[in-house]
Amino acid sequence: MKHSDIAHYRQLNSLRRRFMSRGRRFPPSIEPAAMVDVVLLVLMFFMISSSYVTRPGVEISLPRIDQSNGLQMNALVVTLTRNNLVFFNDQRIELDRLPQALSRAKVEHPDVPLVIEADEQVPVSMQMQVVRDATRAGIEHINLATRGGGSGAERIEVHER
Question: Taking the C-alpha atoms of 74, 146, 70 and 54 in order, what is their torsion angle to the nearest 10 degrees?
Fold first, then answer.
C-alpha cells in the first residue's frame, strides 16, 4: 500500500468513528402508568360501543304454554303491549304503518322469520291483524312468543305458524 492510501484509510476510519451512533447505555423501559391508561381507554371504548339491550325495553307479560321450542335469533320482532303500543324491531310504529315496514323488511331480509310478542291482555284480533299484514308482505314464517309453562326460570319460546 502506498503512503497516501494509508493516510486516506486512517482519515476515513476517524470520520467513521466520529459519526457512528453510540449504543444506548440503558435499554428502553415501558411505563406501567401509560399502559394502564391505554388499557382503560380500550375498555371504555368497548363498553360504550357494545349494545346491552337485545330486546325492546317494553314490559309485556307473555302467555304461558307447555311446549318448548327455542327463540330464533336475528328475527324480525313485532311487540304488542297492553297499552295498544306497537314496536317493530325495537322502534315504536303506528299499527297502520306496520304493513309498509314489514314489506320493506321482507325485501331487505327475505329469509328472516317474524316473531310476534304480544302481551297476554292484547286482543287476538290485533294479533291476527299483524299476522295478516305479515302474510300480505310475503313473510312465510310467523312465530308467536310465549313463556314456558314449567316452574323455575322463565324462558321465551316460539311457536311457528
Answer: 30
Tens-digit pLDDT profile for the chain (161 aa)? 566 777 777 777 776 666 666 655 666 777 888 889 999 999 998 888 776 655 556 666 666 655 555 555 678 889 999 888 999 988 899 989 999 999 999 999 888 888 888 888 888 889 899 999 999 999 888 888 876 655 443 444 444 55
Q: In this structure, are residues 80 and 118 in contact, taking their beta carbons and an 8 Å threshold?
A: yes
Q: Which three cell numbers stand for residue 16?
A: 467513521
Are 54 and 94 contacting, i.e. CB atoms less than 8 angstroms apart? Answer: no
All three cell numbers of 157: 319460546
Q: Is the pTM of this model over 0.85?
A: no
Sequence-ordered list of residues with C-beta below 8 angstroms from that of 61, at least 6 positions apart, any chain: 82, 119, 120, 121
If one counts every other C-beta atom within 10 angstroms of the C-beta of residue 43, the result is 10
* Residue-range domains of the chain with CATH: 64-160 (3.30.420.270)
